[in-house]
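[agent] plan:
  1. take the single chain provided in the ticket
  2. run structure prediction with default settings
  3. attach structure tokens to the ticket
  4. add a short note for the reviewer (M.T.)
[agent] executing step 1
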Amino acid sequence: MNSQTNQMFVAQSVNGPFAIDAKAYLTSKMRKVTLSVEITSESIESLITICELLIQESESDPITLYFNTPGGNVDAAYHLIDFMEGAPVKFYGVVSEICASAGALVFASLPKGHRFIMSHGKIMIHQPAINPQTQVNSTSIKSLSKIIDASEQMIYQDLSTWTKHSIEEIERDCEKETWLKGQEAIDYGIADHLFSYRALSKAISLEEDVMF
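[agent] step 2 finished; step 3 output follows
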């Protein structure tokens, strides 16, 4: 088992052949990147670095981002959103298990038609949370309240744009944890298609037909 996990391949680049491990080889060949950890500045920087390497290989072939994340830092999530919106390649998303909180923001931001969810995949939206370990003194409460209010309004506005719902409906649903499974997420407008490899391949092919 370990020998297969650590199997090395010889790949070609403009600088000649080079060795690459199995996971990196498959990522490169399939242009598939997985977000399976908490969203932090560090994890998003690592993910963006992988995407940048794939973009260097090809600016015409799309990248598929698989989601199984509990969420995390909203600012880091918007860092990834800004990167994807400015990148020269198309991004597709697949919710495999759980895509919660900040992860739901990243997934929802993908273009309509590019958002896939597996039948038992789940998406969760809620209000932005404060780290309970954060120390807040009396002089910073008012400033922190303004930051939270601004963050909430930005999230509600964006989720309204990315789904079929008004800002008021989004705010209501975010007051509690709202979980959407498979088809429910599609009906809500935060996802577009149930996942299958054939459906994803067809969507990508149609995009290519439109482009050329």
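[agent] step 4 note for reviewer: The first helix runs from residue 2 to 5.
[agent] ticket updated
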